[in-house]
Design goal:
alpha/beta, IPNS-like_sf, Non-haem dioxygenase N-terminal domain-containing protein
Length: 236
């Protein structure tokens, strides 16, 4: 009779927290930035007291379930293979470890503007960046205003975080190997969470570091998770 191997215990770790007002006033948050994104940080910074965040979340995120439970025939109308599914509905189009990822459904759009350019050449040549947004207006009319409202708030807050990170772009090289421990981040309720990517790690010479991460599902059925992830990058 075989015995199941015991799963290693996962320890918890509190994330660094900064108040929105401190960011908005341009205060020096260097210590918090280093604690969050430095070589020994978790790679996560939580922003507390973001204005109107709870209202906008409550308006937007439940609509994800409405979109996901539309019929396959309807959802196919909002797929955009020509843009590599970077806009509209995507399910099983992305790969995870070389296999189609059917564990999540995504609805992608630009939260900053519905139509980033009028240049047809740019839209055709770089559809993943410049294609106009696609909305299921007939089926879920509330999605567009709710998505854009929450997305813009996340961008505005993220820019305040990025401004704090700018102070490290010209710094010298300082690299310290991380221990590689796996921890569960304890994120306070009602906070916005920001991570940095590889470009920030390169630009800061390794002082601020990107962190590999994954979402682990619950061990029960009947539970779903809705999030709005906003990816911010430099202008092209």
């Amino acid at each position: 009779m075989s015995q199941e191997q015991a799963q290693p215990a996962i320890r918890t770790a509190n994330v660094s927290v900064v108040d929105y007002a401190t960011l908005a006033q341009g205060g020096d948050c260097g210590a918090l930035i280093e604690a969050a994104f430095g070589p020994d940080g978790l790679g996560i910074l939580a922003v507390a007291n973001v204005p109107d965040i709870e209202v906008r979340r409550a308006r937007c995120l439940p609509l994800a379930f409405k979109v996901a439970t539309l019929s396959d025939e309807v959802k196919q109308k909002y797929e955009l293979g020509s843009a590599y599914y970077s806009f509209g509905w995507s399910h099983g189009k992305e790969s995870l470890q070389g296999k189609p990822d059917f564990s999540k459904g995504s609805y992608y759009n630009n939260p900053r503007t519905n139509r980033p350019t009028e240049d047809e050449h740019l839209m055709t040549t770089f559809p993943t960046m410049y294609h106009p947004n696609i909305w299921p207006t007939d089926e879920v009319p509330d999605l567009e205003p709710a998505f854009m409202s929450l997305g813009q708030l996340i961008i505005d807050t993220g820019l305040l975080v990025a401004k704090q990170c700018d102070a490290y772009v010209e710094a010298g090289l300082y690299i310290k190997t991380r221990r590689g421990d796996i921890v569960k981040a304890v994120i306070p309720t009602g906070h916005l969470v920001f991570q940095i990517g590889e470009s920030s790690q390169i630009l800061t010479g390794g002082i601020l570091q990107a962190t590999p991460h994954a979402v682990r599902g619950p061990q029960v059925t009947g539970v779903n998770r809705e999030t709005l992830a906003v990816f911010m990058s430099v202008e092209h």
